[in-house]
Structure formats: structure tokens, C-alpha cells
User: Fold this.
Amino acid sequence: MDILKNFNMAGMEFQYALGLLGLFLGVCLLITGINYGLVEPIRKRRLINQRLRGNKREQEVRAQIFKAFQETKESWVLNLAERYFGWGKVDNLQRQLLQADIYLAPNTFICITILLAGLGFMIGYLLGVWTWSLGLSFLLGVFPLMLLRWKRRRKTLKIERYMPEAMEMLSRSLRAGHTLPGTLDLVSQEIPAPLGTEMRITFEEQKLGLSMPQAFRRMGERVASQDLRYFVTAVIIQAETGGNLSEILDNIGVIIRDRLTLKGKVQGLTAEGRFSALILSLLPVVTFLALYALNREYVLVLFRDPVGVKLLTGALISSGFGIFVMKRMITIKV
Assistant:
């Protein structure tokens, strides 16, 4: 009887495991079907619509930025920035905003940064701890600058990813007998954004009256990429002195592809260090959250006791310094 009972229990457990396996496979098939039947067609249709619309929105937005920049040049925010930092710093901020595809005038961006810093100070003041006021003010004030840097870097990486392909397409099109403006138009339709968008903007600008060197200089200012500057410099020199531009573009494409390969090798060699830095950076936060979930009163002493607040402040400062040092150690510029 016991053997029969154990056999029945084993059979029920086997059926239960098969049921779970079937449920898991069914969920995977459902997700796959939704992806290929609904999400993927919508994504492809969106990409097609973006290509059909062209860069009309980008042109309108950049026109608005230029107009707002001219109108707010005499604002009190920019007057203070010019007095204490110099107008070149403000002009550089405008260039960085365009390079990050953040469509704000410099004075608007500065005002947002000041408001966030003031909000952080007020939150810390309401908590009654002046160290938290300074810390939150600094963190919220730095957040727009970090977002600007992140978006600028992301756009640069996307552009550099498609640069070798774009150079090859430009070179083949020039060898086929197309002019440089016509080649830009063709390549802008084949290369994904943001590189295709920037080439389309350059094509539209020279069509509206700018000379080819001026249009390319403006493209070099809109993108923070050293690889793209090689391309811009080559085109400008060729426009002034002449030469075989298709051969130059082939060489630039080879150089960019080799640099991307070297960057990939560097990323692989520094993967262990980057992962270790990530673990060490998250470990204090995860430990704090775990202790807070297990024993809340034990953790709240850090906030209620003045000595605990000082210790917590020192821990945050030392953790931030450690993250900065680890970031410097694992960063290799190529």
C-alpha cells in the first residue's frame, strides 16, 4: 500500500512538473507570438513612417532653438553666466545641448538646474539636517548635467556605430558618379538615425544656400564624435584643394572600423573590473535596503541619532569618492 501511495505521489509530482513546464512554454510562446505578431510590425511601421516623414521635425526644432537662443541672449540668467563664466562657456553649453538632442535654450537649462538644486535644499531643510540639504542640492543640481552628458554620449556611440558603413556607402556612391550632395541624400535615407538625420540636415542646409564646407562644419558642431570630425575635415580639405574623396573615405572607414574593434577589445579586457566596480558600488545600497526590510528600527537609528547622521553622511561621501576612483581606474580612452 505504501509503495502504491508513493507511486501515486510521484506520478502527481511528475504531472505537476509537466504542467509547470507546459505553462512556462505556453507563456514563452505567447510572448514570442505577441512580439513577432504585434510589436515587431508596429516597430517596423514606425521606422518606415520616420523615414517617410524625413527630418522636418528636426529642422523645425533646431530653428526654434536658434530663435530662442537669439531672443534670450540678453536675459539676466545669461548675463550672470557671461559675467562669471564668460560667453564662451554659454556658447559651449548651447553646442552641448544640440549634441545631446536636448532642445532647450541655455538659459532654460540653467534655470532648470537652479530650480532642482533649490528643491533639493528645501527638502533637506524640511528634514532638519543641513548636510542632507547640501547633499540633495548637489545631487539634484548635478542631475541635468549628468543627463546631458549621458544623452550626448549615447548619440555619439550610435553615430560611431554606423560610421564605417556610411563611409563605404559614400565612397561607392561617389565612384558611381554621384555628386557629394546627392550622395548625402542617398546615404541619409539608408543609414539609421541619428547619423542619417545629421546627414539629411547637412543636405538640406546646403540646398537652402549654405556652402558645402559651412554645412559640414555645422554638422561637426552638432555631433561630439572624433570619427565624424575626421570625415568633416576630409570633405572640407577636398573642397578647397581637390583630390580623390572616395579613396579618402575608404581610408577613414578602415580607421574607424579598426578603432571600434580596439574599443571592443578594451571593453572585453575591462569587463571584470567594471563588473567588480558595479558590485562594490551597489553592495552598500543593497545591504542598507535589506537591513531596512528585515529590521527597520535598527536602521532608523542612523537617521534619528545625530551621530548616525554624521556616520551616514561620511559613508555617502566615502562611497562617492570610491566610485569616482573606480571609474577612473577602469576607464581607458581609445
Remarks:
- Residues 63-72 have pLDDT under 50 and may be disordered.
- The chain has 14 helices and no strands.
